Amino acid sequence: MLIHSRYLSSISLEDPVESRQLLTSHPSRLRMSETEINPVHEFLQKYGWYALTVVIFLLYIYYKFIKPRVDSVRMQAQLRRQKKFDEDLAAAHQADIERARQLLHEQYLEQAREAQLKQEERRRRKQEEHALEAEKVSRLEQRPVAAPKPAPNVVEPLDFIHAKVQSKAVVIFCKSWCAFSRRARQAISRFRLKDENYLIIELDEWKSEKQAEKVQSELRSLTGNKSSPWVFVNGKYIGSADETVAACRNGTVEDWLRDANVEFFS
Predict the structure, then answer these.
(1) Which residues pair with 232 in a beta bridge?
(2) Burial 171-208 (b: 16+ CB within 10 A, else e)
(3) CA 56, CA 143: separation in Å to the nearest integer?
(4) Three-state SS for 1?
(5) Is 198 in contact with 204 (CB distance < 8 Å)?
(6) Measured in whole angstroms, how far is the alpha carbon of residue 152 from the centre of its chain?
(7) Which helix or strand (DSSP H or E) is residue 171 part of?
(8) Helical H segments across the chain, by residue range
């Protein structure tokens, strides 16, 4: 109907004479337009609300059920792509880690080989040193062994004491660190005896402590004095420090030195 009205209005706007000619010359055109429009108009009048309801229902179904499903499918596809990307990234990262681990393992093997070579070198050097040492020992064993020297005659302590006492005018058996020994030596030193008449034997300076102990033991038994010093003048035992000082003061030492014809200065 809308098309028909437009068609009629277009005809009315033209020249009236021409309009009449068109209407008279083309009456079928007007009838055809009316026949084309009437079925659509009738359909819309009869089924328009139903069509609108169906469209609304279809839109509801689409947005309520179909669109969420489509969005879910799209989201799942996106997640699968993201997961695939993450898996590829993780695989690349794992490959990098594996390469680094392999590199470290190769470095460890190289260091182990170097350490083994160094250990073998040290073992070889030790074997060479042992071989040289064994060769030296074998050479020493092959040398002719000199005959052992005869052991010197060991003098008995008592004989040693008698020999020393008879060898000098004044003989003092003492110890270097003993204060009493120093007193006795100071008392005798006032006579300014020559070395040929004066002998001091410091028993603690001997290399053989065992031999020195034997001599001391014999002196204790011989004189009855248990500690140093032991002073002898002209082959006679005076005593220890106190007795020696007293004998020097009362003239006993001078008399014994004169009897032995020893030159001294008082």
Answers:
(1) 171, 237
(2) bbbbbeebebbebbbebbeebebeeebbbbbbbeeeee
(3) 127
(4) coil
(5) no
(6) 59
(7) strand 170-174
(8) 2-13, 16-25, 27-61, 67-142, 157-167, 179-189, 209-223, 241-250, 252-259
For 19, residues 6+ apart whose C-beta sits below 8 A from its C-beta are: 11, 12
- Taking CA atoms, 128 is separated from 64, 116, 121, 136, 262, in Å, by 94, 18, 11, 12, 71
**β-strands 198-202, 170-174 pairing:** parallel
| Type of residue at 122 | R
What CA–CA distance (Å, rounded) separates 215 from 218?
5
Return the residue matching tokens 């006032």.
Answer: 190
Could you tell me the sign of the dihedral formed by the alpha carbons of 12, 17, 22, 23, in that order?
A: positive
For residue 259, count other CB atoms closer than 10 A to its CB: 13
Residue 188, both tokens? 């005798």
pTM: 0.43
Helical axes 27-61 vs 2-13, angle rounded to 10°: 140
Q: What is the pLDDT along the chain (266 residues), one digit of tens a residue?
A: 444 444 444 444 445 555 555 545 555 554 545 555 577 777 777 787 888 888 898 899 988 888 898 888 989 988 888 888 888 888 888 888 888 888 888 888 888 888 888 888 888 888 888 888 777 766 655 655 444 434 334 468 888 999 999 988 899 999 888 899 999 999 998 888 888 889 999 988 887 888 889 899 999 998 888 888 999 998 889 988 899 999 899 988 888 888 888 877 66
CA distance 196 to 177: 24
